[in-house]
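Notes to self after the Tuesday call (sharing in case useful).
The group wants a holo model before anyone commits to mutagenesis around the pocket. I volunteered. Ligand is flavin-adenine dinucleotide. Logging inputs and output together so the record is complete.
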Amino acid sequence: MATAAAAASQVAVSAPVVSSRGARSSRIQGGSNLSFTNRSWIGTTLASESKVAAQRRHVSKVLCSVQQASKSKVAVTPLHLESAKEPPLNTYKPKGPYTATIVSVERAVGPNAPGETCHVVIDHGGNVPYWEGQSYGIIPPGENPKKPGNPQNVRLYSIASTRYGDSFDGKTASLCVRRAVYYDPQTGKEDPSKNGVCSNFLCNSKPGDKIQLTGPSGKIMLLPEDDPNATHIMIATGTGVAPYRGYLRRMFMEDVPNYRFGGLAWLFLGVANSDSLLYDEEFTSYLKQYPDNFRFDKALSREQKNKNGGKMYVQDKIEEYSDEIFKLLDGGAHIYFCGLKGMMPGIQETLKKVAEQRGESWDQKLSQLKKNKQWHVEVY
Ligand code: FAD
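Result:
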C-alpha cells in the first residue's frame, strides 16, 4: 500500500509521461508517486475490497462498508493537519504571496473534448495548508494591463485535492484548470492575444516552474464533517468538480482516523462528452468499492438526450431524480453547486418546477435550506 514515505519528494525532472488519456506531460520524479496518472492504488484497494465484500455478506449490517474497507485506504500524513478547529484563511495575501513550485501539469481530458483542462500539481512544501473545498489564488507573471506597473490580479482556483495532496504527505495541492481560449465571433478563429492569462500560464507551466500563490480562501464549500453519516449531493459542471474530487478522496481513498465516512455522496457531473469527463477512473472505482455510499450520474450534453429530446444538462439529471433529492434534502442532506455561473439559472428553474409539482414553495424551501446551512454555491 502506498504511504506518504513512498511519495517523498526528489527534485530530478523525469522524462515526459503519457497519461491514460494519451496526453503528454512531465513531472518531477518521485514528487507524486501516486499522482493523477499513477492509479496503482485502484488495483490494490479493489483487490482487498473483493475479499471484504465477501465477508460483508456474512456480517451484521451495523458495520458500514467504509469502515470495513478502511484497511485498503491510503495512509496520510501529517495528521496534525486534522487538529485545527478553524480552517486556515488567507495565510498568504496578494502583497506577500508564497512562491510555490509546479510538480506536474497533465491534460485531464481525452482527444475529443472541446477545449483543454489540465490537472496541475503544486508543491507548497507544507507551508500553505488548506482544507477540502477551499481555493488558492494564483498571480500570473507580468504586468496588470489595467494598472501599469502593478502585478496581475489574483485568479482563484478551487483546490482539487485533499489537505494531504495527491502524494498524501501534506506538501502539495492540485488544481483543475480549464484553458480560457478566445474565439473571434466574426471569424470563428482563435485569437491568442485575448486568451486567458492565468489559465494558459498554468496549463503551459513545466515541472520546476515557480508560481505565486495566495490563500487559501473560502468557507462556503468546506465539507461539513460534524456528521460522518450525512448525505452530500454534489452538482458540478466541468472544472466545478474540483472541490468534490477533494471530498471524495477524503471519504473513500484516504485513511483519515477522525473522518470515517459512512453516509451518501452523490455526484452529478455535467460535461460536453465522454472525453470531457474529469477524474472518471477515480470516481468509477469508488462506485465499485462503495456502492452503498457513492452514486455518480453524468450529463453529457453532446452525447445524451433529455426526456424531451434536447441536450442532456445537469439540471435534466436533477429532474430525473428530483423525488429522491427532495426527500434527502428534507432529511438534512447538504447540496453543493460548483462550476460556471451559467449553470445556476437552469438548475434553479428545475428545482422550482419540481417544488411546485410537489405543492411546495421553492422560495420557502430555499430560504430554509440556506438557514440550515445545507445550501452551498460557488460559481464563477
Ligand atoms: P483572463 O485573462 O482573466 O480573461 C478572462 C476571459 O476574458 C477569458 O475567457 C479571455 O479569453 C477573455 N478575454 C481576454 N481578453 C479579451 C478581450 N480583449 N475581449 C474579450 N474577451 C477577452 N477556473 C478553473 O479553470 N478551475 C477552477 O477550479 C476554478 N475555480 C474558481 C473558483 C472561484 C471561487 C472563482 C471565483 C473562479 C474560479 N475559476 C476556476 C476561474 C478562474 O479564477 C479564472 O477566472 C479563469 O481561469 C480565467 O482566468 P484567465 O486569467 O485565464 O483569463
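Two things stood out.
The chain has two domains: 79-216, 231-379.
Residues 79-216 form a domain with the Elongation Factor Tu (Ef-tu); domain 3 fold (CATH 2.40.30.10).
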